[in-house]
């Protein structure tokens, strides 16, 4: 490509509203442009990077035996009603009507559509397993679209769905996808970690996330200093900490006027926070109805909302109104594990089971109780957020926290969609069974942002040769100089002929401007054709290391062959 013919528009100023470096660089480099919140147009350079990532994803998936399809972006809402997600999905699902009043959604994910494609067409265990994927647009009306390609409303996702006759076979495919994803992310050139993820109501290790390790991620992951254990904080477990013994001979009720927070309670009673019990009240929303839920955890712990949500199997947890609290005689600030009412859900953190001599609310205004023994007669669940410094549930070493960007997610689904959508096959005994499924996603457009977050410097992007928009930028010092112009043109045709993706900066602008653009756009190599052209020599700049090397122009192909 000749720069003078290319649609490349770089800007010096950092766009306001863009806080994340990747967002700033993508806009400044003219890779993308935004037409509305969370909606992006890809300009030629951005499209080239996107296509390269797409190619890597496709190449590895095809090698692993998956097949590409392409499903409609617009999905009839009946399918979503069949699965029960039409109302459950909330406002991220964009619903609309066509001219005939037919209801549709813009696909935020395609479990329903894929099951619909397969049901009736795969009817026997002999036609299984099957792994179908697409790399297509998704739309989610995110509450807070931000950070550029990181959290868009319209974005490109690879979504794959596998169909099996048994759980064992699905599990085999799940492991194959984990290995395939690892190869994809290595090839894309990103540092990542596979972590245990929240699997919703399914639980267990049915779900894994691939986290790009960067300083700017929205997700927090905890990983073990010693072993391989890693988990999203939403799912992270820990060994129950050992708390120093604390004896107190106060027993029974004690007046604690206006002492409603754990910190104040500990201070007021001169007790450690880990001897107290904290209650958090939420309203849990279900498919058909709602209930007040009280979660009890140790005063020194933090409630992990995703775990709390899973514990009551709700769609959402919101704050209850004062009227609702009054209705159920919930005395905020003084709620204790003794609270029991059949209409209200009460869940106690598993680490509190059989704990003795605790201090908690008395379910009476301005009153707490000493000597609370929790026993085992409650509903227990893992409710708390593991923290940096806690002990690894696998080996006991320390857990370390860091931020990550979710670039992929693989999930063992079972019959969660095949059952409601009535998608079945005949097994070996001629018995109808629902497909056992897995689902596998990659944030293809998010990967662009994640790669930049992980590979950049103060001057701009630093692409690797696998996904760079162009591999080589030929920077001509002076176009008026005949020797320089001729050599640059010759190199350009030679490189194109040899199949190297090259851009020739033939603009009539200063050398400094050209080099700034080279650095901002982050092509792996620049070939500077300057004064040395008369001796047929060129200078090669390595964008990543900044190293410069003067070589004879005749050697360029060999030089590249040794490196790329
Ligand atoms: P998140 O927790 O970041 O919202 P998710 O759990 O909703 O992600 P999935 O439904 O598993 O994501 O989607 C698969 C992949 O699509 C994610 O791993 C992520 O890389 C990407 N992705 C999800 N939401 C967005 C978005 N709004 N913009 C860009 N990529 C996204
Ligand atoms: Mg999401």
Spell out the key features of this protein.
564 residues, alpha+beta, BirA Bifunctional Protein, domain 2, YbaK protein, Rossmann fold, 3 domains, nine-stranded mixed sheet, five-stranded mixed sheet, 24% helix, binds adenosine-5'-triphosphate, binds magnesium ion
Provide a descriptive summary of the structure in words:
The mean pLDDT is 95. The protein has three domains: 11-71 and 106-225 and 400-453, BirA Bifunctional Protein, domain 2 (2-Layer Sandwich), CATH 3.30.930; 252-381, YbaK protein, CATH 3.90.960; 472-563, Anticodon-binding domain (Rossmann fold, 3-Layer(aba) Sandwich), CATH 3.40.50. The chain is an alpha+beta fold and 564 residues long. Strands 3, 7, 8, 9, 10, 11, 12, 21 and 24 form a nine-stranded mixed beta sheet that branches. It has a five-stranded mixed beta sheet with strand order 16-14-15-17-20. A five-stranded mixed beta sheet has the order 28-27-29-30-31, with helices on both faces. Helix 1 (21-28) packs across helix 10, helix 2 runs antiparallel to helix 6 (167-188) and helix 2 (44-63) packs across helix 10. Bound molecules: adenosine-5'-triphosphate and magnesium ion. Residues 109, 140, 142, 151-152, 155, 157, 406-409, 441, 443, 445-446 line the site of adenosine-5'-triphosphate.
The helix count comes to 13
**In CATH's first tier, which class of the largest domain applies?**
Alpha Beta
- Rg, please? 29 Å
What level of helicity do the residues show? 10-25%
Give the names of the bound compounds.
adenosine-5'-triphosphate, magnesium ion
Q: Architecture of the largest domain, according to CATH?
A: 2-Layer Sandwich
Q: Roughly what fraction of the amino acids lie in strands?
A: 25-35%
């Amino acid at each position: 490509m000749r720069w003078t013919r290319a649609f490349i528009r770089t800007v010096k100023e950092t766009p306001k509203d863009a806080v994340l470096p990747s967002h700033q660089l993508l806009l400044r480099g003219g890779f993308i442009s935004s037409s509305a919140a969370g909606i992006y147009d890809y300009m030629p350079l951005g499209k080239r990077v996107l296509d390269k990532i797409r190619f890597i994803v496709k190449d590895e998936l095809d090698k692993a035996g998956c097949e590409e399809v392409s499903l409609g972006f617009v999905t009839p809402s009946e399918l979503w009603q069949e699965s029960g997600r039409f109302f459950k999905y909330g406002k991220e699902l964009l619903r609309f009507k066509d001219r005939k009043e037919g209801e549709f959604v813009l696909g935020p994910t395609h479990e329903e559509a894929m099951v619909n494609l397969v049901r009736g067409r795969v009817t026997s265990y002999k036609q299984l397993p099957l792994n179908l994927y697409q790399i297509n647009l998704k739309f989610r009306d995110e509450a807070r679209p931000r950070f550029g390609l990181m959290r868009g409303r319209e974005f490109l996702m690879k979504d794959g769905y596998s169909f099996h006759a048994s759980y064992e076979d699905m599990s085999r495919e799940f492991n194959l996808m984990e290995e395939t994803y690892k190869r994809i992310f290595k090839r894309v050139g990103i540092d990542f970690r596979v972590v245990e993820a929240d699997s919703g109501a399914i639980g267990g290790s049915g779900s894994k996330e691939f986290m790009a390790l960067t300083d700017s991620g929205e997700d927090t992951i905890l990983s073990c200093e010693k072993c391989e254990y890693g988990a999203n904080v939403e799912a992270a477990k820990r060994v129950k900490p050992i708390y120093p013994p604390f004896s107190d001979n106060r027993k029974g009720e004690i007046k604690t006027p206006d002492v409603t927070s754990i910190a104040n309670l500990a201070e007021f009673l001169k007790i450690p926070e880990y001897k107290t019990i904290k209650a958090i009240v939420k309203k849990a929303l279900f498919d058909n109805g709602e209930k007040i839920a009280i979660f009890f955890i140790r005063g020194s712990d933090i409630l992990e909302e995703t775990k709390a949500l899973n514990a009551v199997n709700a769609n959402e947890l919101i704050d209850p109104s004062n009227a609702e609290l009054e209705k159920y005689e919930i005395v905020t600030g003084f709620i204790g594990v003794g609270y029991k009412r059949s209409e209200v859900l009460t869940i106690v953190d598993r680490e509190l089971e059989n704990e003795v001599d605790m201090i908690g609310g008395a379910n009476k205004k301005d009153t707490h109780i000493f000597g609370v023994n929790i026993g085992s007669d409650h509903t227990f669940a893992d409710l708390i957020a593991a923290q940096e410094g806690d002990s690894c549930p696998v080996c006991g070493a320390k857990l370390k926290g860091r931020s990550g960007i979710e670039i992929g997610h693989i999930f063992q689904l079972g019959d969660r969609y095949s059952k409601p959508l009535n998608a079945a096959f005949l097994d070996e005994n001629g018995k109808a069974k629902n497909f056992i499924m897995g689902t596998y996603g990659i944030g293809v457009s998010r990967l662009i942002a994640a790669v930049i977050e992980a590979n950049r410097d103060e001057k701009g992007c630093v692409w690797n040769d696998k996904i760079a928009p162009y591999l080589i930028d030929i920077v001509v010092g002076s176009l008026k100089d005949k020797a320089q112009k001729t050599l640059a043109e010759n190199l350009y045709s030679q490189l194109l002929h040899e199949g190297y993706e090259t851009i020739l900066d033939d603009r009539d602008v200063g050398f400094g401007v050209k080099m700034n653009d080279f650095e901002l756009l982050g092509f792996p190599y620049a070939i500077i054709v300057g004064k040395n052209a008369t001796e047929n020599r060129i200078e090669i700049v390595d964008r990543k290391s900044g190293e410069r090397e003067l070589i004879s122009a005749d050697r360029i192909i060999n030089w590249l062959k040794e490196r790329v």
